[in-house]
Design a protein that fits this description.
Elements: E1 3-5, H1 8-18, E2 23-29, H2 38-46, H3 54-68, H4 82-91, E3 99-102, H5 105-114, E4 122-128, H6 129-137, H7 143-148, H8 155-162, E5 171-174, H9 181-185, E6 188-193, H10 200-207, H11 210-213, E7 214-219, H12 223-235, H13 240-243, H14 247-253
Length: about 270
C-alpha cells in the first residue's frame, strides 16, 4: 500500500531515507494493476493481442524501425545494440518493453506531477536496485556473464537477460551503450523484463516479489501542495525545459509557470 504524503518537508524526509541505498525512481499516475510497459499497454490493453504474440510483435516493430529510421536519423546505434535501438524507439514514442526510470528522486517527482490529470493522485515509485541486481546476478545463466560485464553492455550479456532460450522471467536495469542527451539529463535507467510473453509485474514477482522491491509514495492531489512542489522543483531547475532539450521542452515548460506570475515573463510590461 502506498504511503500518502501531502507536505514538502515530508517528501524531503523520504528523499533522505533513500540516500543510504541504491534506488531508482519512477513518477506516474496512481495505477490499479501495477506497472506496465508501453508495449504491454499498446498490444495487450489496447489491441487485445495474446501474450504469446508479444515476441513476434516486438521483433516486427524493431525490424521495421531499423529498416526505416535512417530516413530521419544522422546517427544510428550499432546493429547488435538491441537496447540502444529499443531506447531510440522509446525516445521517439514507439511502444517497447523498456520501462523508463531515473536515478533522480526529483526527476521522478517532476514526472509524477506532469503525468497526472487534475484531482488524480501522483505516484512516486522507488525500486531497490541493490536487491534487484543481487538476486538476478545470482541466477545460473547470468552469474559468470555479469561477473565479467557488470554493467551488461556486451551483446552476449544483454541477450542472456532479455533473449534467453527458453525465456527467463526477471527484471534487470539496462541502458544503451551510447547515451543520448535526454537520457543523461534525466539520469535515466530502463528496467527491462526478461520474458516479454509475460506481464512486467509477473517478471518482477519472479525475482523477489514486488512488495520487497518497490516502495510507493502517493502524493496529495491538493492544488496548493502540488503548486508548492512545482515551485520547489523549478527552483532546482527541474523542468521540461531542462529535461527535454530543445524548443519542445521549453514550450512545454510554460504550462508549469501558469500559477507563478513572476515566472511567466523575464521582464515587467510597461518598463521597456
Amino acid at each position: 500500500m502506498a504511503e500518502h504524503v501531502g507536505e514538502w518537508r515530508d517528501l524531503l524526509d523520504r528523499y533522505e531515507g533513500f540516500k543510504s541505498g541504491q534506488w531508482c525512481f519512477r513518477g506516474d499516475r496512481l495505477h490499479e494493476h501495477g506497472l506496465k510497459t508501453s508495449l504491454e499497454r499498446a498490444a495487450i490493453d489496447r489491441w487485445g493481442c495474446e501474450w504469446s504474440e508479444m515476441p513476434a510483435i516486438e521483433e516486427g516493430l524493431l525490424r521495421r524501425f531499423k529498416r526505416e529510421a535512417h530516413l530521419y536519423l544522422t546517427h544510428e546505434p550499432d546493429d547488435g545494440d538491441k537496447i540502444g535501438w529499443l531506447s531510440l524507439m522509446r525516445h521517439h514514442g514507439a511502444p517497447t518493453r523498456l520501462l523508463d526510470w531515473t536515478y533522480s528522486f526529483f526527476v521522478a517527482l517532476y514526472f509524477a506531477i506532469a503525468r497526472t490529470e487534475p484531482d488524480e493522485a501522483p505516484l512516486l515509485s522507488a525500486m531497490n536496485l541493490e536487491r534487484l541486481r543481487s538476486t538476478v546476478e545470482g541466477q545460473d545463466h547470468l552469474r559468470d556473464l555479469l561477473a565479467e560485464d557488470p554493467n551488461a553492455k556486451d551483446e552476449r550479456t544483454v541477450n542472456a537477460i532479455i533473449d534467453h532460450a527458453p525465456p527467463r522471467p526477471l527484471v534487470f536495469p539496462l541502458n544503451p551503450r551510447r547515451m543520448n542527451r535526454r537520457l543523461v539529463l534525466q539520469q535515466s535507467v530502463f528496467l527491462v523484463p526478461g520474458d516479454i510473453a509475460r506481464p512486467f509485474m509477473e517478471n518482477l514477482e519472479a525475482v523477489d516479489g514486488p512488495t520487497d522491491l518497490i516502495e510507493e509514495i502517493s502524493l496529495s492531489p491538493d492544488r496548493e501542495f502540488l503548486k508548492e512542489v512545482t515551485q520547489n522543483l523549478l527552483a532546482m531547475n527541474m523542468s521540461s525545459a531542462t529535461l527535454f532539450p530543445g524548443l519542445d521542452g521549453f514550450a512545454q515548460n510554460l504550462a508549469a509557470l501558469i500559477p507563478f506570475p513572476s515566472m511567466r515573463a523575464v521582464d515587467t510590461p510597461g518598463l521597456e
